[in-house]
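Recall the central idea of this unit: under ordinary conditions, the amino acid sequence of a chain determines the structure it adopts. In this exercise we apply that idea directly, starting from the sequence alone.
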Amino acid sequence: MSHRLIDRYRQRLAAETGLAANPWGGRLSVALVYPNSYHQGMSNLGVQAVYQLLNSRADTLCERFFLPDPEDLAEHRRTGFPLVSLETQRPLADFDLVAFSISFENDYLNLPILFKLGQLPLWREERDARHPLVVCGGVCAFLNPEPLAGIMDLFAVGEAEVLLAPLVDALNQADSQERATLLAALAALPGFYVPSRYRVDYAGDGSLQAMTPLPGAPARVERQWLAALDDFQARTCVATPETEFGDMQLIEVSRGCPRACRFCAAGFIYRPFREHGADHLRRQLLAAETGPGRVGLVAAAVSDYGGLAKIGAAILDAGGEVSVSSVRIDAITPEQIGVLVRSGHKTLALAPEAGSQHMRDVVNKGIDEAQILEAVRMIADAGVPNLKLYFMVGLPGETDADVVAIGELAGKIRQVWEAVGRARGRLGRLVLSVNPFVPKPWTPLQWAPMEPVSRLEKKYRLLQKMIRPLANVDLQCESLRSAELQGLLARGDRRCGQLLPLLAAGGNLKAACREIGLDATFYLSRERGEQELFPWEIITQGVRRDYLWREYQEALTATPGLVCSPGCRRCGVAC
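Accordingly, the structure predicted from this sequence is:
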């Protein structure tokens, strides 16, 4: 046994406050696995919510597993010591249910490592009654589950608040422990996709031809979602000093986004947009006798929340502080910025996404240059010293002139920032974060090709040439190889799962594709046809396909679209 690793786990657990582990006592044991570091996993509000929901049940006990830090991972490999839980240091294979929470496609590469450390077969067909069931939840489970269909026994399609209770009840009440019988029963539950209950056929050109359900399984699995957000409050339940938000209480204020940006999956797979009530949030935040402390408000569009300024002011008046990840350019107000400045914010983030109006119309961003510069001026006037700006390159129809427009807009933003900063006697930094466009399922741009790395490299160089002369401006560019991998896994089918062991062992994407007989360009750089069947369409979000196709056609002509509004049913989901 590796005593250093055990000591490391115990020290980490001792540093936490909140929910504590209890003896198993015959309860259903659930291993909650986040396929990345403890630092990242415990900063994830979804992980915190699942942990809270499971441990609030008298018949269930949930313990946490994370990808070991590099030093610990090296010791695991050197000693052969198995992956154990943070709470009681029990091996992964000892649990009844192994539940993965996956938010990012690139984290798939850590699955072969985790299964090996956990002493579990990676492929579901190699596991039997001796092994725990393996379920996948999180955003990736209902964005496109198919690349992991050869690994996971089942997928939770939708939101944990609705799905966890019926899953645990079914497992506790199962009459048969025979694996195939249990999975067949689970496939009949709303919101659970069991890939072994479907036959997959491919056409001669490699595209998906059909996914045929076996008896008892639905033709498509319907996403489940929480209608009344106030019925459960997603918030920090375990304080984790070692993590990025260790000194902050995270709390969800809304779910989804009404803006309908055509590249953004969150705006489509979380429909309808829902908000917590203002009175509910005040009770949640201000009830503690010790005060609210430092509060991180979590949402896809925090500044869209109507009561943000009032709630922020109430937190400040109670002796707390307020933090947000980013603000919406056309929704931010001086009152909201004032709350953030009083809380000590040194950096705010805005997302223009594109430099030209043409490209902002392509993605239905719904803002113009004047609004961008006014938001920058407002933030600068309030005294926020640093600003981060998010842009994309490689969007459908983008030209070099559109890329140049990013540099030109950055120059105009710098002029505003510098003028206000010099008047205040303080110049902060501007950071441009530039990411390649990655087409995602369930968005209007799911049909679009991803631009080849060679062309994206040229666009990066063009931006670097334009930004380099600008003082106090930094350019951060996402790895193109990482983006390419994300692009393939985001829209891949179940054949793509075979790449993961090769990539986890250090292989490159093109070589791995050649080894298993796949063509990377088939998944990445071709435009899909209108009628092509997509692997992710084994599930349904409620958003109509013809609506998404129409939005894609409007994107190609740079025609701005509409935003979600109460009572709207255009897409098929009642808002």
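The domain at 3-222 is CATH 3.40.50.280 (Rossmann fold).
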